[in-house]
Amino acid sequence: MSLAVVFARASLGVAAPLVTVEAHLANGLPAFNIVGLPETTVKEARDRVRSALLNSGFEFPARRITVNLAPADLPKDGGRFDLPIAMAILAASGQIPATSLEQLEFLGELALTGALRSIKGALPAVLAARDSKRILILPAGNGIEAGVIHPCPARLAPHLLAITAWLQKEGELAIPEPVISEERDHITDLCDVIGQEAGKRALEIAAAGEHNLLLLGPPGTGKSMLASRLPGLLPPMSEEEALETAAIRSISGLNLDPENWRLRAFRQPHHSASAVALVGGGSYPRPGEISLAHNGVLFLDEMTEFERRVLDALREPLETSSISIARAAHRVTFPARFQLIGAMNPSPCGHYADGYSRSSSEQILRYLSKISGPFLDRFDLSVEIPLLPPGELSRTRPKAEASAQIRKRVLAARERQLKRAGKTNARLNAAELDKFCPLEQEDALFLEQALHRMKLSIRAWHKLIRVARTIADLNDEQTIGRHHLIEALGYRAMDRLLQQLQS
To answer: Which residues touch 360 (CB under 8 Å, ≥6 apart)?
Structure first.
């Protein structure tokens, strides 16, 4: 038989579309052509496949070989198609039985010896193969990624010869070892933070309602320390959420830690990061930090040191929970549902316009204007993290509340939100706010007057109601009261600072 068909999987965002690898052997001068929109790395498969087959003891056909990767309009890149191309050539030349390939899919990069090297994006391919009810043959190096899926439709092979022997029923391929998902706690604990009770309360509210939080204060007051404790307060990820996060790490080429893969991500990019590094992109789009923080936390420390256009690139993903990157030949969408935590100093010298400050009001305004108003508007809460009062470090203090205790209240509040609306308070739209978060007429008038005095936008109106609803949920109260609104208004430290400087 001079024609063979083998199935493989491409990598397009977090999807793994099916690719049909067709190999045809024709008479004529020996040649090896790969068609179907292959990138340079795929075209180079010709040399890798030829050497791998010869060094594995197979015959490389001295005929005109045409390999088609269908569909032709789907871009293909990487070395993942080496193995399916080799299997298609072996089947077309009659060196392995072609009928045994119908319920199989192949992915893997070939070494010149015929050994298999691991690939990026194996996890989405395993999920897709499971949905298609086929067995996926993978390099042994991708065993951990495949092992997180139960039941796993994959088989692992160290070498091309192991696959051909298995097809001829002369050997066995390993089944990936199941990765046991145990709930693990984060090492960091909120009780390690001295003082800063207002910051801890804001962190609890942010965790309960999935709100974005801005920490404002002088250097060394514990802003970064507080932010790093947030993942320990969040609910554990469901299996679906954990697989989504693991799939993004897989296509990014990041190793999957079998012990910590169920923990929520905490990403802290440096302030020199570009817009592409933060939101994703490139000639062949790859996920950025916001996608790697999917279902977790993105922490932007020293926020005023980021370029303004880089921060503004986050505005749309914060609203849509995804990022769509368009290129001439294709469009890729990556999930990006993350909780944003920002930290910044209140002035260039790091202190407020008081006895510690060396900056004038004009200098402070120029410094704060590095961050656009629409981006600041995306934060539900902004809280001041001040210097500790004298004597706070040396005095004997009672043991602070641990993250585990606070997490119980967060879980209870989240459960109330999901039971009421099926989503967290931060994700409620305007119609759902009217339905689930009604205000008394007097309270609505009070909030509107406060909004005008602080010169806040309509978006801030919605955010204040969401935060007030979360405070009520933490207190296990059915309705939003005036005291909830007053506390929510207290978490607008940045608005008060800007109003004070402009007056």
So the answer is: 353
